[in-house]
Amino acid sequence: QTVVTQEPPFSVSPGGTVTLTCGLSSGSLSTDHPPSWYRQTPGQVPRALVSTANFRFSGVPDRFSGSILGNKAALTITGAQADDEADYYCVVYLGSGIWMFGGGTKLTVL
Amino acid sequence: EVELVESGGGLVQPGGSLRLSCAASGFSLGSHWMTWVRQAPGKGLEWVANIKQDGSAKYYVDAVKGRFTISRDNAKDSLYLQMSSLRAEDTAVYYCARWGLITGTTYWIDYWGQGTLVTVSS
C-alpha cells in the first residue's frame, strides 16, 4: 500500500525559510499530474497554495513556492510569518485515477 | 464568485445510508472534474472520489469502493455522494471541491465547500 509521506511537526523562526516535502513510500511522483499543496488552519476549510509546477493560487504571496526536489514535492516558505502557522498538505497522483493526500505537516512559527 | 455548498450530513447508524449533495454556483459545473475529500475529527485530509466532467469516469479510494457512489447532474449544478454500509470510520467532515486545470494536465483543487459533518454512531 503506497503512502504519501510528509514531515512530522516542524517549526521555523519568524523570518526564516522552511522547506516541507512530500514523497511516495514507493514509486515516483507523476510528472503528468504534479503534486499540489494546501494549507489549513484550525476550524477552517483547506485552501490551495501552490502547484509544484510553480503556480501560485490567486492571492498567495510569492513567499510560497512549489518545486520538485529529487523524487519529492517541496513547498518552500521564505520569510515565515506568525500567520503561516497551519497544517500543510500535499496531494499526489498515484495513477489509474487515484489521488492521495499526505498526512500533513503542522508548522509552528516560533 | 465560485461557491460550493454541501448538505445532507448528519447522524446515521452503522450500516445505514446517507446522500450528500453539493450545490455549485459561479462557474460551469460541467467544465470541471469534481471531488469529495473527507477529514475525520482531528485527522488529516483524505481524498475520497473523483468524477469526470460528463460523469463517464469515476474513481474511489479503496476504503469506500463498493459502498460509495459519486454522481453529478450538470443541468442542476449539483454533485452527489451516495454513501451506504456506513461504518464508524466514515465519520468525518465531507468537503465537495473542484479540480481546476492549471495547464496541460496539471490540476489542483482550487475551490472547496465549507463541508458537511457525517457521524456514524449507534
Could you describe the 3D structure shown?
The complex is a heterodimer of chains A (110) and B (122). Chain A has 110 residues and is an all-beta fold. In chain A, 0% of the residues lie in helices and 51% in strands. Chain A is built from no helices and eleven strands. Chain A has strands at residues 4-6, 10-12, 18-24, 36-40, 47-51, 55-56, 64-69, 72-77, 86-95, 98-101, 105-109. In chain A, the strands form two sheets. In chain A, strands 2, 4, 5, 6, 9, 10 and 11 form a seven-stranded mixed beta sheet that branches. The model of chain A has no long low-confidence stretch (mean pLDDT 94). Chain B has strands at 3-7, 10-12, 18-25, 34-39, 45-51, 58-60, 68-73, 78-83, 92-103, 106-112, 116-120. In chain B, strand 5 and strand 6 (58-60) form a beta hairpin. Chain B is globular. The termini of chain B are far apart. The chains are: A mainly beta (110), B mainly beta (122). The A-B interface holds A 32-34, 36, 38, 40, 45-48, 51, 53, 55, 57, 87, 89, 91, 96-104 and B 35, 37, 44-47, 50, 57, 59, 61, 95, 102-103, 105-110, 112-115.
In short:
Chain A is mainly β and 110 residues long. Chain A has strands at 4-6, 10-12, 18-24, 36-40, 47-51, 55-56, 64-69, 72-77, 86-95, 98-101, 105-109.
